[in-house]
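Appendix B: complex inputs.
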Amino acid sequence: MSTERQIRAFVRRQRREHDSRRLSDRLIDIYTWMLGAVVASVVLSGLVDGGIAPHPQVFMDTIAWLPVVLLVAMWAVLRFGTWQGPVLFSEPELQWVVSSPLDRRTLILAKLKRATVIAIGVGVVGGIAVAIGAAAMAHHNVLLLFVVATLSLSLISAMSTALAWHIERSKSWSRVIEVGTPVMVAAVGVVSVLVMNSRTTAAAWSGPWGWATAPIGAAAGASVGGWVIVTALFLVSTVAAVMSAAATAQMISDEELWRRSEARSSASAALFFGNVRAATTIARRQRARGHMRGRTLRMVRLGNPWLTIPARDLLTLRRNQRLLVVSGGFVAVAFVSGVAAATRPALLVGVFVGLYAAASRLMEPIRLESDRTDAHRMLPWPWGTILVLHCAVPTVALTVLVWIGLSVVGITGLAPSAATVLLAVLAPFVASALVLSAGVAASRSGFPVEMLISGTQQSSFMLVLWMITGPMLALIALGIAAGTVLPHLGEGIGQSTFTAVLFLTMATAAFGAWLWNRKPKPE
Amino acid sequence: MADTQSLLVAEGLGRDFGELKALDSLDLDLSGGQAVALIGHNGSGKTTALSMLAGRLEPSRGTVRVAGVDINRHGGSATVRAVLSFIPDTPALYPDLTVADHLDLIGLAHGLDDVDERTGTLLGALGLADRSHLLPRELSRGMRQKTQLACGLLRPYEVLLLDEPVSGLDPPSRHALHMLLKQIKSEGALVVFSTHDLEFARDLADQIVVLRDGQVLVAGTYDDVSGSGHARELGLG
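Resulting structure:
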């Protein structure tokens, strides 16, 4: 046995010996897994017996979308490679094992092999899912489909893992993936159009995601032109990707391994305490590798000291335009839901969720402030005043986004012009109520850790209350305002609009007063 | 009774943490143009004292008045905020703002007219001129400390409180800070700082307060302190 293997076997043995879990814990784990498997089996057998859609064509239509699904999944794996990747060492491993004179290639290869085995496992699960789908939808050749799908999906998983390794070890490839999101979105659009137009052969030739689908489609009986060549191409490229990953196993810097290890520790710790925002911030920071956009942009000098915080928030939005784009997306969801709600009123929920989510994203500056409560002491205002000042730019930004949405639905005739004008008048008041309610939620730092750890019934209740406070406040404010206006869309609209504006203003003032009186939590 | 010209007055100031008396009773009556050093071993109560003088920590007993205002009653008042600048030992910087952004923010927030000129001077003096585009996480511990110093020195103040300002600084930066604080003192501001650097304290401070286990051991000029019976214990002998 080689020295590297001895070391790894030693570490595994020691870990087993020092595993503090009791037998009862292990039995509970086994019981949980078995229970899950039984429940899944019952559900799946029910599907197979009952037939959720016992028509083979439904199955064919479903697997036609496989290239799109695989493209998105592959992109997700490659994106994962920009900040984590298949080769991850823990900090103690880096400090004591990787830094030793042991053969680094062997150590990295062991990690790569493990990641590839996991990837193949995912492929097998995918194959089982395809087979179950085929059986449930009364398709023939279930066994053949299972074998082909398992092989294809295992191969594309292995290829994605190998490519993710190349991204992990190469800064330039990592950067390409980081900035390539628009290209990926366009690719998803193109493949989706091909699928929608039943261009099965073109979709199959469009890239590895299509290559992997070609043999599955052929096994299912679809007409895929040149599927044998595509499959051969797929096999060769997968082998090449895996071999090149193995050949470059030692080509990664210590710095890169450390950065990823530290990012993983920090992100895991953040997730352990339910702080998803912190975890995503860590991931984004690791991916960016110091490439902060708009570093040369400076704060706009607005002349009055009271406008300093809005100027600072404007700088944040100019540098982090993703915030505006994401918020714009949420506003678009709200408008699509609003238009669709004309025939299905239940979709009004989508309007609220979209608008609140947009307001919440725009409140990032207040979260940054709450992350470092001690930093505010260099400013000449009390904490509460700073929090209220942070609401100005998000309110304006949300109002403008809503006005843009209203312009689009107005111009395209999706909403009556009178309603559009009315909503345009209400927009600043709605935006301010939403932003300040989101501000109330964002200004609290993370949920108290001691409550999270205690795990009592009371702490669960508090956690739920903590999470829904912002949306509930917004819902109350907007619900009453909507309830005032909606019944009077015809007659008496002027009076009801005035009442709604009055109520939204009162709600905004109440949320603002709460923020104004906040004290910073001690550092 | 304190002098009406006094900028910073502490009377019987003390703080307990449970059973521990972190600071027993501190009395100060300080006016502008002075520099006072708090020295003592780790855990002697220096940071506790400065935190209470800055209004960050509520005293268990005693009072602090800054420019005549009781900061525990009116800690958030505009008067106190306008005259007091506290630079803690742990840098408190915004993670998304560069060094230059921090100085812009403070300049704008405090309505400084000559912010560019003063920023340039401070960045140059502290050796940060070529790092002004960096984020806090891209700076070394010393550079973050210097950024914090630049922020604290840029804003207007009459009372400047610094907690271990030279810790983590290299000798040239230490010298630069010494020169800056000397100038600040000569311009009429009151400078109170804690330090383990006895040479720095000797060169800058008019008065030295030595703390041990929360008690004022000895107070006076450097000569008074070094001539006291505690000189050897403090490393002055």
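The CA atoms of residues 57 and 168 of chain B lie 24 Å apart.
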